[in-house]
Design goal:
By secondary structure, the protein is of the alpha+beta class. It contains 3 helices and 4 strands. A hairpin with a 2-residue loop joins strand 2 and strand 3.
Length: 114
């Protein structure tokens, strides 16, 4: 994992893990604007050849770190990120139910996005 770089491609809505010049995993997300700003992860994907190397966990950790640096919450819809957050409450504050509802409504209103 030490040679893996994680980069935020905000325009594409992807947090990507890159190692040896290739994307080995990603979290696909969007930025919710109302009722207030939040990062909303929808999918976590790790390429099969790279599974079991801690990439998904590193992506989830970085997503929460990005949110903390920006001073905004995370409203996870991705099942992996939800489970990761439950196991790491010190790094992943509980999601606001109002933001989760708004995130689900946004996702339903944009069916082709993910």
């Amino acid at each position: 994992m030490s040679e893996t770089e994680i980069r935020d491609d905000r325009a594409a809505g992807r947090l990507e893990a890159v190692g040896d010049g290739e994307v080995t995993g990603r979290i696909e997300y969007f930025v919710l604007d109302a009722p207030r700003r939040a990062l909303v992860p929808v999918h976590t994907i790790v390429e099969p050849a790279h599974e079991g190397k801690g990439i998904a966990g590193a992506l989830a950790r970085e997503l929460y770190a990005v949110a903390a640096r920006e001073g905004i919450p995370v409203a996870p819809l991705c099942p992996y990120v939800v489970k990761w957050a439950e196991r790491h409450p010190d790094e992943a504050p509980a999601a606001d139910p109002e933001l989760l509802d708004a995130a689900e409504a946004w996702l339903a209103a944009h069916p082709g996005r993910f």
